[in-house]
Specification:
This protein starts with 6 loop residues before the first helix and ends in a 5-residue tail after the last strand. The longest helix has 26 residues. The strands form two sheets. Strands 3, 4, 5 and 7 form a four-stranded antiparallel beta sheet that branches. The protein has a three-stranded antiparallel beta sheet with strand order 1-2-6, with no helix packed on it. β1 and β2 form a beta hairpin. The protein is an alpha+beta fold. The chain contains one helix and seven strands.
Length: about 130
């Protein structure tokens, strides 16, 4: 009967090989996954003017699901904010898009969508103050 210490190196080698293959499989899955929502940036709230400390600007978050981007904006402030969704596509032949401006009134909510044919490279929101009469 062989001594148990002769089996240990073979067992350790097999375990290391399996662990290495499992690591490659996990790495392949991570690379194949679509870009996470963290890559999608949200625009910062605009400043209403020099010397003013009034809080304005809708709070927006973007969600990327496959080739579709959805922006959810909620405005907790008393002034109307005008938001636009900008989508940059990953493929060179895929057309980037900018949404029409959407006004988000005080205590209001807006949802803006955009898409690419294939993968989304990045998405972001821009803000601008709405006209005073709005």
């Amino acid at each position: 009967m062989p001594a148990p210490h002769f089996r240990a190196p073979a067992f350790v080698s097999a375990a290391a090989l399996l662990a290495g293959l499992a690591g490659l499989a996990v790495a392949a899955e991570v690379r194949a996954a679509p870009a996470p929502a963290a890559d999608a940036t949200t625009g910062a709230a605009y400043a209403p003017g020099a010397g003013s400390d009034e809080n304005v600007g809708a709070s927006c978050r973007t969600l990327v699901q496959g080739s579709v981007v959805t922006a959810h904006c909620q405005n907790p402030y008393p002034r109307t904010d005008r938001v636009r969704l900008h989508v940059e596509c990953d493929r060179w032949w895929d057309i980037d898009s900018d949404s029409a401006p959407v006004e988000v009134g005080p205590a209001d909510y807006a949802q803006v969508t955009g898409r690419c044919w294939k993968e989304v490279r990045s998405a972001w929101i821009t803000h601008e103050p709405a006209a005073q009469g709005s």
